[in-house]
Write a structure and sequence with these properties.
The protein is α+β, with helices and mostly antiparallel strands and about 170 residues long. It has helices at about 5-15, 20-25, 85-100, 145-150, 155-165, and strands at about 30-35, 40-50, 50-60, 65-75, 125. Mean pLDDT is about 75; it is low at about 5-25.
Length: about 170
């Protein structure tokens, strides 16, 4: 069965109109770079509801602890972003590469066409506050009696006898 000619024409028209949007969506969404201080960084770009989030994870050359951070902004609010989104992200990553410590607080990130005075402040990428070290969920308090810790309630007396015998 052959699809009607009108459907083929609509599909071709949709491909021509949506081509620029698809190119922006198909650009690199993750990668790696190194800083002047020889930090090895991985980046990942996430977009949702108009806002974009650039997540970084950097490790010192000597193998120190990894440091993670994220930048968030709304680059779509910049008039130049729509036509040159690939250029925008290249400039942002270039600015991050030049920083000694990409996760250290500093000025917001912006590309030249979307810099201050050319786009609203929301278009700039700002470093999100560090949530701090994750605190483990409080677990049950360890008891001093091994029989309570390792034996079921119904075996507690027998277990206590053997633990007492074992400990002498």
């Amino acid at each position: 069965m052959r699809p009607p000619l009108a459907l083929l024409a609509l599909a071709a028209l949709g491909a021509a109109v949506g081509g620029a949007e698809r190119d922006a969506a198909e650009e690199a969404r993750a990668g790696r770079f190194s800083t002047p201080e020889r930090h090895r960084c991985r980046w990942e770009l996430r977009s949702a509801a108009g806002a974009s989030e650039l997540r970084l994870s950097c490790r010192a050359a000597g193998g120190g602890a990894a440091r993670s951070c994220a930048y968030r902004g709304e680059p779509r609010r910049c008039p130049a972003f729509g036509a040159r989104s690939r250029h925008y992200w290249r400039q942002i990553l270039s600015r991050l590469r030049r920083r000694r410590h990409p996760c250290a607080p500093g000025a917001p990130l912006s590309a030249r066409p979307c810099g201050p005075g050319r786009a609203p402040p929301e278009a700039q990428l700002r470093l999100l506050p560090d949530p701090g070290p994750a605190t483990p969920a409080p677990g049950p308090e360890p008891s001093e009696d091994p029989a309570q810790t390792y034996c079921a309630e119904r075996w507690h007396s027998l277990c206590s006898f053997f633990v007492g015998f074992w400990e002498g």
